[in-house]
Amino acid sequence: MVKVNSCVFISGAGTNLSALIKNSRNYNFPINIRLVVSNKKNAAGLKIAKKFSIPLKIIDTNSSLFEVNILNEIRKRKINLICLAGYMRILSKNFIKNFKGKILNIHPSLLPKYKGLNTHERVIKNNEKYSGCTVHYVNYKLDSGKIILQKKIIIKKNDTPKTLARRVLIEEHKLYPKAISKIFNL
Ligand code: GRF
Fold first, then answer.
1. Most buried in the list 18, 72, 180, 185, measured by CB within 10 Å?
2. Which ligand 1 atom is nearest residue 16's CA?
3. What is the pLDDT of residue 185?
4. C-alpha angle with apex 85: 89 to 153, nearest 5 degrees?
């Protein structure tokens, strides 16, 4: 199988990155991860990239050229898919335009409900019965692009934002690879 060169953007722990890297080692998983981009120089996820010897790039989002720099890097490495995995910055319209239909994101809620930050807190506060996670394409509006896959879980009576986040995250690690296989018709 000819794999699609991909890049993962992170800001934090990188547990989704880890799940994607592990899946990518499987010969019939459609992507290879050629680059990890982080906007945080201390992101724990960078250790994961190092452990698997994946090139990494730390970006300085204060620089006006940061997106131009990433685009150059991505083009240089012939990357055709960007997976946002806990990347806590909004990409510019121009960046998205350059990569339209080739940027994915994972969000810890059942979109279109609970876009944005602090999803688990808001879900619990509203006494929702269900929550979950969504993998979707990135478009110009936050957490609003076409949905690829969702996984729903039942909220337990004594769930806190923390316990819910933990359970949703376990599902994220399975859903993201599944969604990637789906977009390549596997
Ligand atoms: C995940 O819950 C993801 O959905 C959200 O941020 C968290 C990142 O976790 N956007 P990790 O860095 O992949 O461990």
1. 180
2. 13
3. 86
4. 115
Measuring from atom 1 of ligand 1, which residue has the nearest CA? 86
Could you tell me where the DSSP H helices lie in the chain? 15-24, 45-51, 66-76, 93-98, 119-125, 161-183
Enumerate residue ranges in the chain where pLDDT < 70. none
Question: How much is the pLDDT for 61?
Answer: 86
DSSP sequence for 108-132: SS-TTSS-SS-HHHHHHHTT-SEEE
pTM: 0.97
| Annotation marks residue 120 as catalytic | no
Q: Are 55 and 76 contacting, i.e. CB atoms less than 8 angstroms apart?
A: no
How far is the centre of ligand 1, averaged over its atoms, from the C-alpha of 110 (Å)? 14
Atom of ligand 1 nearest to the CA of 12: 12
Q: How far is the CA of 167 from the centre of ligand 1 (A)?
A: 12
Residue ranges covered by each domain of the chain:
4-183
- CATH 3.40.50.170 is the classification of domain 4-183: yes
Residues whose CB is less than 8 angstroms from the CB of residue 54 and which lie 6 or more positions away in sequence, other chains included: 21, 33, 34, 35, 36
Cβ atoms of 131 and 122 within 8 Å: the answer is: no
Average pLDDT, the chain: 96
Query: In angstroms, what is the span from residue 142 Cα to ligand 1's centroid?
Result: 16
